[in-house]
Amino acid sequence: MKLKDLRPFVPSKDYEQSKAFYLALGFNLEEAGPDLCILIKDQCTFFLQRYYNEEFASNLMFQLVVYDIDDVMTVISSVTNIEMKHSPIKNEPWGKVIYLWGPAGELWHITELNR
Predict the structure, then answer these.
(1) Residue pLDDT, tens place only, 22-55
(2) Which member of 1, 79, 86, 113 lies 3.0 to 4.6 Å from 100 by CB, making a disulfide possible if both were Cys?
(3) What is the 3 state secondary structure string of the chain?
């Protein structure tokens, strides 16, 4: 089996707010229907859906591996019109990480690995 891509479906409590959140982070958006869009950044994509389940959303986590975590912190810090709940950069034995919570409660582990 050879994989090509893995594209999760991310819930939104407020669909328009979630779209604005991801656009502010630098994702591009392609509409895929009235209740679904695809968010794209470099080679990474995921679906954002107009669907919300609190228990699911608050337990949903992703790891987004980046080349330069300082660059990510600059992007997050420059967003002024949307609330960005996040941790400072944390050093771990395997690399650095920022925890960023999306508008529906989804948690992004934005990671720069040591290797």
Answers:
(1) 999 999 999 999 999 999 999 899 999 999 999 9
(2) 86
(3) CCCCCCCCEEECCCHHHHHHHHHHCCCEEEEEECCEEEEEECCEEEEEECCCCHHHHHCCEEEEECCCHHHHHHHHHHCCCCCCEECCCEEECCEEEEEEECCCCCEEEEEEECC
